[in-house]
Recover the amino acids of this structure.
């Protein structure tokens, strides 16, 4: 079944189903169409989020001249809400997971295709609610993306709508996870045993469980916020006997595992890309697979490290700190195995590998600085400073964000049937990489010197580093622009992509680019 | 197990009954965690304000609470029997048992309505002047009472709607002895709602 797949059927773009035009997309239960729609949506929200981020950076080199204090609070809050809940949490699973999970396990679709379509509608509804909260009475949320109580219960801004939107998005995320886990259990092709699963599938499996086990806790916490605002139920309101620290506990019980919802599938992408471009099998397949489960399970018990300065017993803090260090072990296993895969490989220096390698570099910096703030003594100094901001941008953007760019370049030929020119992709990558490090590494130093996060203004001695950081943000934006324009041009002017441009061995490379509507003429058998 | 395929028909129709059950169980896990958030709040606040909780729980109507427990437990039995009836192709009986379940669900909500209105008429509801004059623990107890029984009641209501659809499906031949996973999963959901109540009942009515 090597290369005869090219022309036996129409691609899924031609199979419209019962509807025409936009409805042929919105009403489709085809996992590939749903994946493409999600991809368009998350990249749109990413672009808006980037612009808001640029605005925050711009305001910081001239406090008061561009944004007022209140607008500044709203802009960074909306930047966070968009980037977290609309871009990076759905991120890899909804776009690339939807498109490739069924193909990679040799199935025709996910286990519950109509439920899959429902998640997409819920995502749209959640996004619409969040958007509505920006423009209706009260104004955009100014609480930061964390909605900390009791401020979120008392604030004048339009928190209720935004929180309802996030609740709906969470429901969408739960159902996606449920669908993927069921799919992996039930729809693997004959011979596709657990330890033949591509590693991307393994990480989607682990992610699916985290989505199911963590997101409901966020959902109920957000319900409490809404009930607090609408009915005056004061579970987090100290004036009514409630406890704001409980909010933090419940919120981070979800929001720390959510970090792994973002980064686990990103690691899966890297585990696919590195072996293909090193022309070798992945080093230590089982260790990489198990480490995904390890991260998912241990990551559930470390939320307390977000609250070291919130008031907890020393025993609790020491335990949370210790478990935090444990999470670093499976992450380290992955990093070492990727590097070991490259060792003595016959490396093809194509654009996807550039992005994948920079993922390893940036994620390692993000991970190691995570250990610095995961230990108690430095945390007391660094908590709530720019060091934290730098750390999570290295993990989220340098990790998950770069992985999305990796996947975009790796799977672009398969998803759209077009090749993009390599050179602009690499130039874009280079500009992005330089801009990224200027932007966020300056923040490590700023934070170390005591600059608190979310502050509108600062003493003059921080100015130079803020300036470097802001200049970095412009360079980063240019890099992103080059990358996206290059891909958009290729969408219309690219040359026809072969079914397997990189020499990949997973099942998606055995079928035509773009894939036919039902993926496989006959369900493949894996030997 | 992984070799069973053909689950996905061309229309995207789901026929893999085991797969459907997996999906339902996963969904119930998420429900447990959803309610888990509330039970955690309950335990934290109970530990903090034991005396206030003791006082406030005296307000609860044990008779109506017990009655509701009996009604809901019986409805769990009737939905279980309706599945057995369906599998034995006794569709008429199955429909009757499902209808009985719906009715008992409605009775549960009516009783709950009387309990709530009795409290509200005394001025006890979130943010009420009467409640805000009480001690912190009592405010929290009644807050938890309204939120937990309210969200549970919402689940009962959703269950009633879903079972009504199942009655329709059984009548139209969409749910049959060979294709029963829809009804079976509805039954699982209903049992879950029942089990949540089995925990709510002692926490609000019995331990005072």
């Amino acid at each position: 079944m090597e290369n005869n797949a090219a022309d036996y059927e129409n691609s899924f773009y031609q199979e419209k189903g019962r509807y025409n035009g936009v409805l042929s997309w919105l009403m489709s239960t085809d996992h590939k169409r749903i994946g493409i729609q999600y991809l368009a949506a998350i990249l749109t929200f990413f672009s808006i989020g980037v612009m808001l981020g640029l605005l925050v950076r711009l305001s910081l080199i001239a406090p008061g001249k561009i944004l007022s204090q209140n607008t500044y609070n709203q802009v960074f809050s909306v930047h966070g809400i968009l980037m977290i809940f609309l871009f990076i949490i759905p991120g890899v699973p909804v776009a690339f997971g939807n498109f490739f999970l069924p193909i990679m396990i040799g199935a025709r679709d996910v286990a519950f295709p109509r439920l899959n379509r429902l998640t997409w509608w819920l995502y749209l509804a959640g996004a619409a609610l969040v958007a509505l909260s920006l423009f209706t009475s009260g104004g955009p949320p100014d609480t930061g993306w964390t909605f900390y109580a009791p401020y979120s219960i008392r604030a004048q801004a339009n928190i209720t709508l935004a929180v309802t939107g996030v609740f709906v998005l969470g429901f969408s995320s739960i159902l996606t996870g449920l669908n993927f886990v069921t799919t992996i259990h039930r729809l693997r092709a004959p011979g596709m045993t657990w330890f033949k699963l591509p590693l991307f599938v393994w990480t989607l499996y682990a992610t699916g469980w985290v989505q199911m086990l963590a997101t409901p806790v966020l959902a109920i916490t957000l319900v409490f916020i809404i009930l607090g605002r609408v009915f005056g139920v004061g579970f987090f309101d100290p004036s009514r006997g409630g406890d704001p620290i409980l909010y933090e506990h419940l919120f981070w019980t979800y929001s720390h595992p959510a970090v792994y919802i973002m980064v686990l599938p990103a690691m899966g992408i890297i585990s696919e890309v590195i072996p293909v471009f090193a022309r070798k099998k992945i080093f230590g397949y089982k260790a990489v697979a198990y480490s995904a489960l390890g991260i998912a399970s241990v990551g559930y018990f470390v939320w307390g490290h977000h609250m070291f300065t919130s008031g907890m017993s020393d025993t609790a803090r020491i335990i949370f700190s210790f478990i935090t260090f444990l999470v670093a072990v499976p992450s380290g296993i992955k990093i070492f195995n990727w590097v070991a895969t490259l060792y003595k490989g016959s490396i093809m220096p194509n654009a996807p590998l550039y992005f994948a390698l920079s993922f390893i570099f940036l994620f390692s910096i993000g991970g190691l600085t995570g250990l610095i703030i995961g230990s108690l003594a430095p945390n007391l100094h660094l908590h709530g400073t720019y060091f934290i901001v730098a750390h999570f941008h290295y993990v989220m953007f340098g990790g998950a964000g770069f992985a999305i760019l990796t996947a975009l370049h790796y799977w672009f030929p398969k998803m759209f049937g077009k090749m993009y020119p390599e050179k602009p992709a690499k130039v874009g990558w280079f500009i992005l990489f330089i801009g990224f490090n200027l932007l966020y590494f300056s923040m490590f130093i700023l934070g170390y010197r005591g600059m608190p996060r979310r502050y509108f203004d600062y003493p003059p001695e921080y100015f130079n580093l803020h300036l470097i950081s802001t200049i970095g943000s412009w360079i980063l934006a240019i890099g992103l622009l080059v990358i996206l324009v290059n891909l958009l041009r290729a969408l219309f002017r690219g040359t026809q992509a072969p079914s397997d441009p990189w020499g990949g061995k997973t099942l998606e490379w055995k079928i035509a680019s773009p894939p036919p509507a039902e993926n496989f003429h006959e369900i493949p058998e894996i030997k | 197990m992984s070799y069973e395929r053909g689950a996905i028909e061309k229309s995207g129709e789901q026929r893999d009954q085991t797969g459907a059950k997996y999906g339902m169980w996963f969904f119930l896990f998420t429900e447990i965690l959803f309610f888990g958030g509330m039970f955690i709040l309950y335990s934290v606040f109970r530990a903090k304000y034991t005396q206030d909780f003791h006082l406030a729980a005296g307000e609860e109507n044990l008779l109506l609470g017990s009655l509701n427990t009996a009604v809901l437990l019986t409805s769990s039995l009737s939905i279980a029997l309706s599945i057995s009836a369906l599998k034995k192709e006794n569709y008429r009986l199955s429909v009757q048992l499902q209808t009985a379940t719906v009715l008992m669900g409605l009775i549960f909500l009516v009783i709950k309505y009387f309990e709530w209105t009795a409290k509200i008429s005394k001025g006890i509801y979130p943010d009420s002047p009467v409640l805000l004059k009480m001690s912190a623990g009592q405010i929290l107890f009644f807050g938890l009472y309204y939120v937990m029984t309210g969200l549970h009641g919402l689940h009962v209501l959703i269950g009633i709607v879903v079972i009504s659809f199942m009655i329709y499906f059984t009548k139209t031949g969409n749910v049959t002895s060979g294709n029963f996973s829809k009804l079976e999963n509805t039954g699982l959901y209903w049992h879950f709602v029942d089990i949540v109540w089995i925990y709510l009942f002692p926490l609000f009515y019995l331990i005072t």
Remarks:
- Chain A touches chain B through 47 residues (CB under 8 Å).
- The two ends of chain A are 13 Å apart (CA to CA).
